[in-house]
Structures are given as C-alpha cells and as structure tokens.
Task: inverse folding
C-alpha cells in the first residue's frame, strides 16, 4: 500500500503544479493579458495541457488509484480515503467513455463558446442550434455510458455539480418555489413602483471612489488581502488556487453604484470560503469549496442577506455618503435600502434581483430536464423558453438574445449547473437561520463585527474544504437535511414590507 | 538531419511552454501576488522547474543539438543555424562544470539575495562577505572550467552578458570615460547649484494624475497596448515573453513627479524593442533583445536622449501642466527642462543622473576585474569601493549600505553584468547620431512623431531579435564598430550649457 500511496502523491503533486500554471494563465487572461497575446498563450497552454494529460492518464497513476480504492479500509488517513474515492470516481470517464468521442466533445465545447457568443451578438439562434444539438446529444450518450443502478439520466449530470442532488431532490425544491414563490412574486412585482431620487440611478459615480469603497468593504468583511486581492475584470469572479491565494474581481460602472458594491461582496463570500479552508488541504486534491451550491450559498448570503440588509447600511451608509457626498446628498439610508432591494420582473438572470432570481433558474431547470430525457428538442427551445418565462417570471423576451441565448453555460457543456444557483440561495437561508440561533446576526452586522460571521462559517462550513459532501455540510451547519422552507419564509418576510 | 531538427524543435517547443509558465509566475510575483502565497508558489515552481530541467538535460535533446552543430553547414535555415550555435554554447555548462558544483552554486545564489538584503538592511558587510566570497570563488573556478584558447578569465563572464565584449574592449571604453568624463563631471558638479521653484520637489503629485500622464506617454511613444500593458510594481521593469506580450511597470511616488515619467519612458524603450522583434521568432529561441547592452541602449536613448530633450518637453509640457495645474503653475518649460537634467555627485547608482551614471559603473567594473583576477579580496571591498567613489564620482559613502551593499547583482551571481549598463548609454549615443543622419530626430520629437524613431529602430535593430550579435547590430545601425567618442561628445555638449 505504501508504494501506491507514494506513487499517488507523487503524481498528485505534479498534476497540482500544472493546475497552478493553468490557474494563473486563466487569471491573467481574464484580468489583464494583452489582446494580441491570446494565440501565443493558447499554444503554450496546449503543450502544457498535453504534458499534464500524460500524467493524468498514466497507467501507473491509474493503477495506484485503483489499488488504493480496492483497499480503502486499509487506509488510515481519512482525508486520503476521501481523495481516493473522488479520484476513482474521476476514472469513470477514462474507463467508460470511448476516448475518441470524449476528445471530440472537448474540441466541440472548446469552440462552443465562440459560436454561442457570435450567435448571441447576432441574435441568431439557428446559428447556435446545431452546436447545442451536438452537445445535448453527447450528454444523452454520456449519461448512458456512466449510468449505474443508483444513478441514471439527468441525475448523473446534476450529481456532477452537486453531489447527492438529483431530479427527486430538485423537484421537491422547485415545486416549492413554483407553488409558494411564483404567485408571491407575481403579486409583489405588480404593485405600483416606488419612486426614487433620480440621482441614485442617474448620477456619475467615479471609478476611483467606487474602488475606494470596495476596498473599505474588504476591511469590513475581513477579506484577507494577505492571501488575496481585488482587481477589475469584465465579469466579476473568484479564482482561488489555495487558502493562501484566493483572488476576486469586480467591475465598476460609473452610472451604476450598486453593481460593484454587490459584486465585491458576492465574490468575497466565495473568496472567504476558500481562504478559510484548512490550509492542510492546500497540497491535496481536497482544497476548494465542496460544491457549487454550497459555494453559492456563501456568496449569496454575504451579498443578499448581509450586504442588502438594513442593519448593514445603518452602519456603513455614512462611509458611502463620504465617498459620494454630492451624489447621495439628502438621500436617507432608508431610501437607499429600498432602492437596492427592489423586486422587478426582468429578462436577464445575471441582473435579476434576490426575489426573482430563482424563477430564472427554474426555467432553465425544467428545460434541461426535458432536453436530457428527450421530451424537448433543441429547435423548440426558444418557444419553450419564452413560454416558461411568461409563466414564472411574468415577462416574455421579445428577442432570443434576451432569452435563450443569454447564458454561456450550455455552450461549454455545462448541463446540470444552473440548478445549483437557486439551491445556493436556499441553502443560504437555512444556514443563516441556524447561525442566527448561535449569534445574533443582525446585531453583529450592525456592530461591524462580520468577523464573527466568518468565524462561525469557518467552523461549520469553510474549514472542511472538500472533505464533506453538501449534505454533510448542511447537517453540520444546520443539523437538518435540506429544506426550502426557510428560503421561502425569508423572501416572503423581506418582500412583504 | 531531418530527424534531429524535428527532435530539437519538439524539445524547444516544450521548454518554451515551461518558460512561459515561469515568466508568468514571476510577473505575477513581482506585480500583484498576495504576500502569503510565496511558499505555495515556490513549491509549484520547483516541481515544474524539475520537469523542465529533465527536458533540457535529456540525452536525446543534447544529442540533437550536438549532431546539428557538427553538421551546421548542412542546415539551410540561417536562423536555425544561429539557434543551434547558441544552444551548443549553452551545453558548455553541462559538459564542463561538475554537476554537483553547479547545483551547489545554484542553491548558493538562490539564497544569496536574501542574505544580501538582510546585510544591506543592517548595514553589515561582514554578514554578506562569506557568501560573496563563495560566489567570487566559484566564478574564478567557472572561468577555469570554461576557458578556451580565445577566451579566458573575466572575459568569459563579460562575454556571457555582452557577446564579443571583453576586458580589451571595455578597457578602451572605460579609459575614455576616465580620461574625458571624470574631470568634466567633477568640474560640472562643482558649479554653484541652480535654484528651482520649491513646488517641483515639494508638491504632492497624485497617483491617478501621474498614471494618466504615463498613459499619455504610452500613446506618444506608440507603445502597443494591444501587445503589452503598464502596471505598477515596487521597482520598474520590463517583462516580455513574445512580440505579442511585452509588459512594463513603473512606480508612482506622490512627492516625485520625475520618477514615474522617466521610468515609464525607460521601460518603453525596452518594451518597444521586444514588441518590434520579428514575430517569426516568437516560437524560436531567438526572440528577445540580443544583449543587455543593446537592450539598455534602447531604454537609455528613449529615456534620456528623447525623454529628457528640450524638443520633447516643448511639445508635451502643456499636457503635464494640464495634469498638474496647481503644482506647475508659473513654472516655465525651460525651468522644468533644467530641473530634470541636473547633474549631481550622488552615492546611489539607480538614482544617478545621465551625466554621472557611467562613473558609478566604472567603479564596479574595476572592482569586478580585480576580484576575478585575484588582485582584490572580498574583505577589502568596502575600502576599495569608497576610494574609487571618491576618485571618480567625487563623493565617498559614509556607510556600506550607501556603498558596496547597494546593488543586488553580485548576490545572485551576476558578475560581468554591470559594464553593460554604461555600454548601453554609449551605444545609444552612437546609434542616435547615425539615426539623425537619416531622420531629423529633434524635429520628429518636436512634431510628436516618435513613430518615425520606432520605425527606424525596428529596421536597424529591433526586428533582428537575437539573430545578430551586438557588434553586428552596431554595424547595421551605424556602419561602424563601437566607439565611445559620440557618447562623450553628447554629454559634453548637453552639460556644458
């Protein structure tokens, strides 16, 4: 066993070093690399990726994983057991999917986002449809290749993004959303619109002052700048490679004050999660968030439940006014709070507010399910999309650009990913409620003591990195299985007022 | 032959991909990587560097180089011939230096800069001396291992940094500096000091405005931001990996307006050189500047001969005043020009002005020569340093921190590097004179047409990348061998007024 453990660790170390290089190349590409350097970089990437693939598919490495998996109970290191289980699961692809088909699919999904971007630009769904059809077809084949007595069809894809969550779990969740939230949202968004001071949406908010406020927020949230940094990029994201290097980005719009504030807070939620992973996992395959849903629960809780709370702005609005004295003159904190918590029927998911967000995801979930089980054809997507948007969000897009073409995900092969976005918000409500039993969350927010929230989250969620499944994390943090009940309660309470 | 060519190219491609990763890791480290990430990065670096070393020392790769070198005249591709010659020269180390000694030296010089930094901090030469002694001793052995009938002693080290330049060439150069410049500088710097408006050195120049002016300079110099970028770092530098990705940095001091301006222009000189390399060399081992001296000739010419010229500021001072209306109020361009061209006796090389700069280098050259030929011992360095500073610069340091401990170079094993700094300035004067015969340089500067200077430099210097030696570049650009005459003439004319 000793020899297989050493072999496994030796390969893992090398593979991680390559991953580090890829991580940095992608961070650079997304934040500052000069335009003309794209081809040169991708040439170097291909060479290194080939070297790395040679390691990952090395028969010695595969043998080590298999032998260790067969003798899992002989392993004393509990973390290593978890790693080996995951590594063995990862071998499914190599073993069950014909290599040629898999490589063909990689090429397809690599060029997919280019084709999607052009189609979106031109508002031309037909341009995108053939590619999307191939992607859907492959995924239908993939789930056949990977099916087991326990896991079949769309469940396999869902499980890849959120372990333990399949159609059964998501159906329960989305049925609650449909029954409880859809009518509530339609009611709330049909009320007469509140009027706000024009300056809130029309004044110019200079970039350097917005940046100053974002840096202030980093202090407020105790985001550790010794182990990360904030930079600007086209679309905000978090990019972590170890607990000591987890970076975030935001984007400043001079005519939109709220955008950068909530992007920065959202990404800090992701960032603090990985910064607070136990550092002992940095050198293992277990560093990072355990799932997309749990990751999103952290970013959504920080952004919406903390960042958009009245308690938060009671304490920090003065600093915002200090940054923008003219723009925010005579606008009371109450008005600002209402302004950043408006609920609207909108077409674009990434711009949707806290209340309507999960309905956008619901539309995508129902579509994915039918695509994979064969009930829906790619050519019928736009019709279906528009119909569901009307039904759940109360607004039908007039173009595909604002409809089915808006998201990049499917073009890269990510089917089964969207549902985790809504799940994350629901996890957040359940986790918040549980945390609130131990610490008075509103009070610590108002007292500018978010460090207390970070400390609780570290103990109950963050430190475990990938050693617990999402379901285990929920048990540890809330002593309950997942339930959407608190999410619905939270939204109804907040948006009834 | 075909088979060796293919083998060579295959290895080269892989080695370049690793170099790309190392380049990016170092760029990231120097510009933004979070402090706490240092150890994690260096662990990944070591793993990748080992993989890369395996390639570089692979017997198949070495065999390919040797076979191609033996049959050089059979190669049709002239560029490949040059590459193979260089690659074969690179094999000297592997073949002639005992591996253990070489590795021990790598470890020594890797930790050297840490020890140097601590010793400098504490102004404690004795702390640094044992390390420096080992470095000098190894270099004395190294030149023995590498000596050939043509090249011996210090010449070998000098040639590593500037091909074709040895003690004979440098002695000629530095003797002229000693005879012509030393007395001239001592005379100029003993004149009564000019008085300047206090605001020039005492006002606050906000960072964002300095950054705006640096970006304006990038347009003025046609630095291609599609193939590079400007960022801030502790010490300004240029970092290029291909013609399509050559990045520069600068540093903004709020109390020093001139620093960032001339750092930005200096680094653009380096940057434009590599951006204008023929792109066909991007995938070869021939991309980059041909030598440190030629590289420095470009940065010094852009910084001093263009950037500090009156013609330049006649055209661009208005923009500077626009950025700093209060700070520069009532300060005429003539006064600003005089201010940025003061000559002073100073102790620190990197802060020295254009006139006195080469005298700082002269001190280091004489010391290095005596260290390697055994006439000077490390323990006697401080005494010798202070004596030469008094003699050539007219000012003796009172501490070693401001004396022999000021530069990092020797601690990393770079002996033979310093002389290229002075040589670069002298090259610049010779090249400028030659260019001025074909285009009226002052006129194009004043007409804001620096693109014409870039175009000339591309044709005569930049496009060749590493395919020509420094001596060949001088012949192409000036139809002459190197002569320090124009450098002395230029300085005497500029600083006589």
Result:
């Amino acid at each position: 066993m000793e020899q297989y453990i050493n072999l496994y660790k030796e390969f893992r170390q090398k593979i991680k070093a390559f991953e580090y290089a890829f991580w940095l190349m992608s961070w650079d590409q997304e934040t500052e690399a000069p335009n003309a350097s794209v081809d040169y970089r991708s040439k170097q990437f291909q060479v290194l990726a080939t070297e790395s693939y040679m390691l990952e598919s090395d028969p010695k490495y595969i043998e080590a994983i298999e032998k260790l998996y067969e003798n899992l109970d002989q392993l004393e290191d509990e973390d290593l057991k978890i790693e080996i289980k995951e590594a063995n699961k990862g071998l499914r692809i190599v073993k069950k999917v014909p290599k040629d088909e898999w490589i063909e699919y990689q090429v397809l999904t690599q060029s997919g986002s280019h084709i999607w971007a052009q189609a979106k630009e031109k508002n031309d769904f037909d341009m995108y449809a053939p590619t999307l059809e191939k992607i859907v077809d492959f995924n239908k084949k993939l789930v056949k290749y990977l099916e087991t007595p326990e896991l079949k069809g769309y469940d396999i894809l869902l499980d890849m993004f959120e372990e333990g969550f399949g159609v059964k779990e998501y159906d329960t969740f989305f049925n609650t959303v449909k029954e409880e939230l859809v009518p509530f949202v339609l009611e709330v968004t049909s009320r007469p619109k509140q009027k706000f001071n024009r300056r809130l949406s029309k004044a110019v908010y200079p970039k350097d002052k917005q940046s100053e406020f974002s840096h202030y927020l980093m202090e407020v949230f105790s985001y550790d700048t010794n182990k990360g940094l904030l930079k600007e990029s086209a679309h905000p994201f978090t990019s972590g490679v170890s607990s000591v290097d987890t970076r975030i980005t935001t984007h400043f719009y001079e005519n939109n004050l709220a955008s950068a504030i909530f992007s920065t807070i959202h990404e800090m939620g992701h960032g603090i999660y990985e910064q607070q992973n136990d550092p002992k996992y940095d050198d293992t395959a277990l560093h990072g968030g355990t799932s997309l849903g749990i990751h999103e629960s952290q970013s959504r809780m920080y952004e919406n439940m903390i960042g958009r709370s009245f308690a938060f702005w009671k304490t920090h609005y003065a600093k915002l006014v200090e940054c923008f004295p003219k723009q925010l003159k005579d606008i009371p904190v109450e008005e600002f709070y209402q302004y950043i918590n408006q609920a609207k029927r909108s077409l674009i998911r990434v711009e949707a507010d806290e209340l309507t967000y999960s309905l956008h995801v619901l539309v995508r979930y129902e579509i994915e399910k039918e695509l994979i089980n064969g009930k829906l054809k790619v050519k019928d997507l736009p019709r279906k999309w528009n119909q569901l948007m009307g039904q759940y969000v109360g607004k039908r897009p007039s173009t595909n650009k604002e409809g089915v073409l808006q998201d990049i995900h499917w073009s890269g092969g990510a089917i089964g990913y969207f549902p985790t976005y809504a799940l994350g918000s629901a996890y957040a409500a359940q986790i918040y409620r549980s945390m609130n039993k131990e610490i008075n969350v509103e009070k610590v927010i108002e007292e500018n003591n978010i460090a207390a929230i970070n400390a609780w989250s570290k103990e109950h969620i963050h430190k475990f990195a990938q050693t617990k499944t999402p379901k285990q994390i929920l048990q540890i943090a809330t002593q309950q299985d997942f339930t959407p009940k608190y999410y619905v309660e939270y939204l109804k309470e907040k948006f009834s007022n």
Observations:
- Strands of chain A lie at 230-232, 238-242, 245-250.
